[in-house]
Amino acid sequence: AQKVTQAQTEISVVEKEDVTLDCVYETRDTTYYLFWYKQPPSGELVFLIRRNSFDEQNEISGRYSWNFQKSTSSFNFTITASQVVDSAVYFCALTQTGGGNKLTFGTGTQLKVEL
Amino acid sequence: GAVVSQHPSRVICKSGTSVKIECRSLDFQATTMFWYRQFPKQSLMLMATSNEGSKATYEQGVEKDKFLINHASLTLSTLTVTSAHPEDSSFYICSARSFRDLTQETQYFGPGTRLLVL
To answer: By C-alpha distance, which of B69, B108, B111 is closest to B93?
Structure first.
């Protein structure tokens, strides 16, 4: 069975601070995909990144960066110089290849960025 | 690209009525669509997987006669909540997987539908 753990329920930071959202996963599959989605108050899930299990390169996209560590089964997400617009719930998710492509979501981390 | 729409965005209905929610992939063909339910401050719960032209696959504990899913084309899936009751009030979100995205496994999500049953 697959499992995604986001231990941080809620994080509050002041604008311009850096913040890291943790994600730890469990799977028996050797081939899988990891995702991060952002859910702002409007409710729509916004796709942020996909990473496959064979690609451990870290990725940076503007103020966002992701650290994939297969050895510790972690896929952490860092926002640099946070902004109020970053306030949202962030979900980490995992899917195996094939098998119906079901996504297993973590419980989400509520990020609040204050002025 | 990869835009998914849902209609309606919000619906209020009386107990006992049926409500239909539409999910459309606007700029891509979706062989597979997924329906999720989300309660306040909780994660998404997968209800069913819908493949075009075939019957939906429901997750354990989800009543297929209560939540009717139809995926009649590569761009449209519908979820009908039959004989809705207050406990069905929730946020329903659909997602779609691109026909061309067979190796990428990415689901793109709609904006969600807030259902309130009085």
So the answer is: B111
CB A112 within 8 A of CB A13: yes
Considering only CB atoms, B111 lies closest to which of A43, A108, A110, namely A43
Q: How far apart, in whole angstroms, are the C-alpha atoms of residue A92 and residue A5? A: 8
Instruction: Please work out, in degrees rounded to the nearest 5, the angle formed at the alpha carbon of residue A99 by the alpha carbons of A110 and A60.
Output: 40
- What confidence tier does A74 reach under pLDDT thresholds 50, 70, 90? very high
User: How does pLDDT run along chain B (118 residues), one tens digit per residue?
Assistant: 689 999 999 999 999 999 999 999 998 888 889 999 999 889 999 999 998 888 899 999 999 999 999 988 889 999 999 999 999 999 999 999 876 665 567 889 999 999 999 9
A45, A101, A107 member nearest B109 (Cβ): A45
Closest to B24 (Cα-Cα) out of B37, B9, B39: B9
A81 Cα to chain B: minimum distance (Å): 26
Answer whether A90's CB lies under 8 Å from A75's CB. no
